[in-house]
Predict the 3D structure of the following.
Amino acid sequence: MTQDLSYLKETASQTAGPYVHIGLTPNASGITGVYPADLGATMLNDRTKGTRIIIRGRVIDGGNAPLRDGLVEIWQADAAGLYNSPSEPRGGADPEFTGWGRCACDGDNGEFIFHTIKPGRVPFKDGRLMAPHITFWIVARGINLGLHTRMYFPEEMQANAEDPLLLRLEHRDRMKTMVAQGEGKDSYRFDIHLQGERETVFLDI
Amino acid sequence: MTDLKPDTGAFFTRDRTWHPPAYTPDYKTTVLRSPQRALLALDNTLSEITGPVFGHAILGELDNDLIHNFARPGEAAIGERIIVHGRVLDESGRAVPDALIEVWQANAGGRYRHKKEGYLAALDPNFGGCGRCITDENGNYRFRTVKPGPYPWPNGPNDWRPAHIHFSVFGHGFGQRLITQMYFEGDPLIWRCPIVRTIPDRRAVELLIAPLDMANTIPMDARTYKFDIVLRGRRSTLFENRLDGN
Ligand SMILES: [Fe+3]
């Protein structure tokens, strides 16, 4: 016999269900007067450093229908590649940028939209720089455990080609599922496919 | 005692045999919404180790009181008055202070305030169904609400959700992000529920069932349920390579 390792088990996940918008974006779902604004609705202000960008997209199921009851959160570094978080060991992130956004998928067309800035490059564990990227987290009815993925930028071909995470992909053609499409200046489209030929690469991270 | 140093270590690997798998056909909506390819596994980077942390300043006075936060002045939501409290810990058993907990639920009759909700149970004009709180320095949280009712849902021909409260939790890193549901001790619908049954391990389900906590019940006012939440733990950073080294 040995001592017991005595670690606790993580609380098991359950689906966010069809009414996640009530809890996480109540104002957007019509429940007004409880909170002044929905958390994550605004990521920046006039003083935020960096290039303003817009990201639009949908979460699409195996029947090619966009989820209208889904919810997407994003987490990203500031323009200098620093995270606005107490766990950022390098400190010093732009205090005018939260780095975190939350958007309910639209009840009619399923579209989400984020007004943010283009993130700087963040070092990987070994010091190599990762390509600029934004972490996406997707929850919805029928998703038992929130899905993590990343959005990379189409104009960063060189950085993407040497990104330590993208280099881990065994099937190189799946890399494009993590790269947004340009839609005019500083505007991007990032559709997330839950299943099928274009299934997005999701991360166990 | 709490550890006041910011946490900067990578998270323990998530035990995906403990969580529900993505594809659970008895919960029919998962069939078209479950990824089918293997996930890409990678040790945490700064993008997962860091995460937003919310200050107590975001909270309004009634944010943790679902009985009153949507009610007209002087009125209150109808239903069994309850308090839900507990601790947020990590897998190492350490308290997680400043964790944001957001909750949502049906009213006492099992009806959500949502335009797509189809259940014929009545809306309560004084109940919105959302609330939030942030853990204190010891990881404790509490909120007040009414006990939600069970409700039927279109899945099998006669599926009912046990009474439950939805929880969204932020720890200190985005890799800890978690959504779950709390159930109530003694509810006969728990073990019949296809969503509960997406979880393969009975012990994992038992940890989602909040016991009645008579010691913390307020006599003549509200019964109390205790629900502890465990987020992913962190590895020590002591012997890890420095980011700017090597
Ligand atoms: Fe529910």
